[in-house]
Amino acid sequence: MKKIMCKRVVTILMSLVLAGCQNTASSSSVMEEGKKITDAYASYEKAVENHVYGESWQADLSSNYTMSYSDDTKDTFDFKASLKQENQNVSFTQKINSNGASFDMEGYYLDGRLYNSYNGISYYEDMTYDAFEKTMMVPFDPLKLEESQIRSIKGIEKEDGTVQYVMELQPESAASIFTDRYDVYGLADYDDYGVKEAKVIQFYDRDGYLLQEKTSFTVTVSSSSQQVSVLYESDLQYSNINSASVSVDEKTMEQLKSYVNYKDIDTSEDEPEKEGDTVLEKFRSRVVSYLGYQKREDGTYRLDFNTNEMYQIDFENCTFTYGRYSIAYTYNWKTDVASSSTCNYNFETEHSSDGCDVSVIDTMKDVRQDLAMELYYCGLSLEDLLAEMK
After folding, report:
1. 188 pLDDT exceeds 80?
2. pLDDT of residue 264
3. Are 211 and 238 in contact (CB under 8 A)?
């Protein structure tokens, strides 16, 4: 589960998804003092409908996942980014930290071209502004809720005209809202997915601009026979509305001109591809530049995802291994069999050897799915690889 979640996030990064970062406003997550709004929902509905966008602005957001497992272990995922927009030109930075593994991105969207730097690779991609907006991880428009989706709502108006709404959501509605709008991990794909509690807080100024949207969702899922409680929190804040500036000096512009088309990214560290290469040969040729694996002296490829987890591909023996602490699970794509120190599981026959309990088999299935995802990120598929092995 952990590997799949984190790899989804990396995929989003490579797809140039944007989201947000540090707090810059002074708004609070608790109800502030002010005049209580009698019909809070009607006021909130009007605020969302009359919401206006500035010609320029800065958006900062922080989002965080804390995953608590039934074996008393925890995983964390933090995302921070900052974005400035002026007349559909954008500059941005973002940073992900997941259990010690860090990923940084920065770039510009200028005159219909996205310039991006990721892990030392600088490239560009032409796209419309609408397409660029759709790649954003967290929506920058205010959440609009139906009254039936809200369990309770409170609203106050301060002396300066700022309005605050605090809304607790119905659990049934919260599950679909979280899935469709906020979740980048794909939690709904796991068993027993549900949202226990959810809160959304919005602030608007007297001119109708959204100043801040804060959320918190308590989510439960199960994976590998473990119950997992996930706390998701986000804080989107706007500042410098109609005064933000996106400027690029001559030196930076010259650097941007040196960026390569994303289709022509240098893969010289990989083994060269040849026309007619098999799926396995293509996978081997892309595993460094596409996935970040490092080739070792023994010919295997390894990725240390964090201090506790590693992934290894052995092309000579057709194996993909996931290791956590001292435990390793290995999947052989030639035989379609997974193994651990205690047992084996055959995916074709769905037969396991003695000693394979349900949790071990679930983990083996996760490892096989991990390989499928690695192939997917390389533009390939596990189905084609398995067919090639027959």
Report:
1. yes
2. 67
3. yes
